[in-house]
Amino acid sequence: MNDRKSSEPHWRPALGRVCRLTRREQETFALLFEGLSNASMAERLHITERTVRAHVATVLAKLELESRLAACLASYEFFTKGKLACPNESRSAEVREIGKTLA
């Protein structure tokens, strides 16, 4: 099923799925916005690079995205333009706050 409008970017529907992510996955999603390598993300999160790879893979699966680039673009949109991601606005605000603490 294709739930996107023909004029919107292919990654935009993922914004409605951000609330599916665990806190650590949300942190990973936020770091994708910065375009960090897995090694840099591991250092920032104090976890192994292998764990980062697992988190990135899970983020892609839960957001139903096919590439890291698509996740980066969705993350950029979410954190810079404040697009609503969760049905509950307070949940969206919580995810945005995670992004701010990592910046």
SSE layout and pairing:
Blueprint lengths: L22 H11 L4 H8 L3 H15 L4 H14 L7 H14 L1
Helix/strand class: mainly alpha
What's the pLDDT, averaged over the residues?
84
The biggest beta sheet is recorded as: none
Helix content: 55-70%
- Give the total of beta strands: 0
Indicate the overall shape: globular
**Strand residues, percent:** under 5%
Poorly predicted sequence stretches spanning 5 or more consecutive residues: none
Distance between the termini: 36 Å
How many separate helices? 5
Rounded to an integer in angstroms, the radius of gyration calculated over CA atoms is 13 Å
Q: Which H/E pattern describes the elements? A: HHHHH
Please describe what this structure looks like:
The protein has 103 residues and is an all-alpha fold. The radius of gyration is 13 Å and the shape is globular.
